[in-house]
Amino acid sequence: MKPLDFRSAPLLSSTVLPVLLLASSLGLLSCGSPGSGSGKAALGTDKPNIMLILFDDLNDWIEPLAGHPDIQTPNFQRLADMGVSFTNAQCDSTACNPSRTALLTGLRPSTTGVYKNGQPYLAAVADRPTMMEAFSAAGYRTLGAGKVFHSWGPGKLVWDEFVEKDDDPRAEMRETAGLTQLAHFTWGPLDVEDEAMDDVQVALQAKKWLDSPQKSPFFMALGFYRPHLPWNVPQKYFDLYPLDEVTIPKLVNTDVDDLPPSGKMRMDRRAHKAIALAGQYPQAIQAYMASVSFADAVLGRILDALEASPYRDNTIVVVTSDHGLHLGDKKHWGKYTLWERAAHVPLLVYAKGLAGEGQASPRPVTLVDLYPTLQELAGIEPTTNLDGISFAPLLQDPLAKRDRPALTNYPIEAYSIRDERWRYIRYRNGDEELYDHQTDRNERTNLAPDPAHDEVKERLAKAIPAVAAPNAPITFNPDDLQGTVKHLVRFYEPKRLIKALQPVAERREKRRQERKAAAAAAALDEAKETSSEGGNP
User: Which of 78-87, 184-193, 278-287, 518-527 has the lowest mean pLDDT?
Assistant: First the structure.
């Protein structure tokens, strides 16, 4: 059978609908019922609830991490005071899709082959249970809302209930010289109430679930879009940061001079130059911080709802982001680098009874470690062959020994290794960078060329995987039609597939009709010309 290629709209349009009909007849459109689990939770209670809260593009500009002196995030600080904050948490990839895939599967990009945003994340791990599936099998009710997976809504059909994200209102794009070419770099205040924002609607959905009686323990995953671009949030959050009072991060023009060629390739100079020439650096910083404070207000709604609910004393709360974000440092705007600002993420964990309450842990951890950590805390059977290692001991003693450095991978065969002092970067072609965070928090001096640091590089390089999985294909290759059906209905909700593919089919039919009409017109013109020539003496 011809492979089903998700880049091929015509193939999808002609194949998916009959396949879905077959899926229905085979009884494959149901999510399946949760299994039963047993075991005592590490926290001493039977099966605590889990609440996983994911933000997008949130770097260390929050009060617990002190990434920016002006930032106002009282609710992030509130949660840090209640639980444990990890000051050296790193993402597994600085791109959305591979980072979320790693978090939700417990497998690194070098294991799954998911390195890019465009790869069908779940196709690469078809036979591996996601975190939600593991908790469902242990008797948990799985609830999800917003942006949890990177795209295609709920991802696998593993939810008992899932509420998708809608579109937010946007500010009218202003004609700012030099910035209209950067359509994705837009920002501005909105004259709307918070409730008009979809992230708030996701928080309100969480409140509904928390206000409702639950017959079994729940695993609730909430995905919030802010502070991802566009930085359009209600006016009151911009008002927190008057332009004439905004602290602009110090930029050092020579910061990138000692980067190897592979490092310089990661810089988005076009965006940096455009924003600088337009004189919009303060406005961009203001807009990002406004979006972070909006995200903080959303978090506050959830914490308020949890504290008012009957689940406040038996719910584990995890707050993190898929990756960080550069805002002009190293002349770069965005993510997709292996430097601190993109790889460093907030990670706050709360559970009643933690000995580490209100403390910070400097030990390096990554998001791939969350899967086994939550399983250990909940006392459910651990999933085998995960790349992550539980950091549950750090929740009782934030200074407990942990020898493994944090590994970040982007793109294929390019790695950053971070321990408590050093960041070592090795690119696919062997280019290197090394930064000493004891003296250089902003990573402005590349020490890799200095032979005095060869031992440090060799030690950290041991964390690089010996083998990297090849890029996952953007195709399914089942052996038969039934196999195709199983893949489709496991990864994509049928209604969403139909809704997304119908316009594709209509556009394809329109182009076909246009080509047919053009060919007929050309044939008529040719016939007229031939007839005219034949009539000449």
Answer: 518-527
Per-residue pLDDT tens digits for 54-113: 999 999 999 999 999 999 999 999 999 999 999 999 999 999 999 999 999 999 999 999
State the Cα angle at 147 between 144 and 149, rounded to 5°: 85
Using the structure block, give the residue that is written with the tokens 């294991």.
Answer: 111
368/357 Cα distance (integer angstroms): 23
The answer to whether 19 and 484 are in contact (CB under 8 A) is yes
Task: Looking at 91-232, list the stretches that DSSP marks H as alpha helix, in order from N- to C-terminal side.
Answer: 96-105, 109-112, 131-137, 198-211
User: Could you report the per-residue pLDDT of 466-508, keeping only the tens digit for each?
Assistant: 999 998 866 544 444 455 455 555 555 566 556 655 665 676 6
Euclidean distance between CA atoms 45 and 371, whole angstroms: 19
pLDDT band at 182 (very low <50, low <70, confident <90, very high): low
Q: Which residue's entry shows tokens 């090795």?
A: 426
Residue 120: which pLDDT band, with cuts at 50, 70 and 90? confident
Whether 228 is a known active-site residue: answer no
Note whether 302 and 37 are within 8 A (CB). Answer: no
Q: What CA–CA distance (Å, rounded) separates 143 from 439?
A: 44
Say if residues 243 and 201 touch (Cβ distance below 8 Å).
no
Token pair listed for 259: 């980067």
Contact 8, 16 (CB under 8 A): no
Token output for 135? 């908790």
Length of the chain: 537
pTM confidence score = 0.82
Which of 224, 52, 202 has its CA nearest to residue 132? 52
Determine how many CB atoms are found less than 10 A away from the CB of residue 201. 18
**Of residues 31, 68, 91, 150, which has the active-site annotation?**
150
What radius of gyration, in Å, describes the C-alpha atoms of the chain? Answer: 25
- Select the more confidently predicted residue: 7 or 475: 475
Backbone angles phi, psi at 86, to 5 degrees: -100, 110
> Are the beta carbons of 281 and 275 closer than 8 angstroms?
yes
CA distance 62 to 83: 15
Cβ neighbours of 10 (radius 10 Å): 13
Beta carbons of 168 and 146 less than 8 angstroms apart = no
Report the DSSP pairing between strands 422-426 and 432-436. Answer: antiparallel
Helices 269-277 and 281-307 cross at an angle (nearest 10°) of 110
Q: Which of 31, 68, 91, 96 is catalytic?
A: 96
Q: Strands 315-321 and 326-327, how do they pair? A: unpaired
Question: For residues 252 and 48, what is the distance between their CA atoms, to the nearest angstrom?
Answer: 48
Structure tokens at 23: 């899926």
Helix axis angle, 281-307 relative to 198-211, nearest 10°?
A: 10
Residue 383 · residue 134 · CB < 8 Å: yes
CB 81 within 8 A of CB 358: yes
The more confidently predicted of residues 337 and 517 is: 337
Confidence check: pLDDT of 26 > 70: no
Catalytic residue list contains 31: no
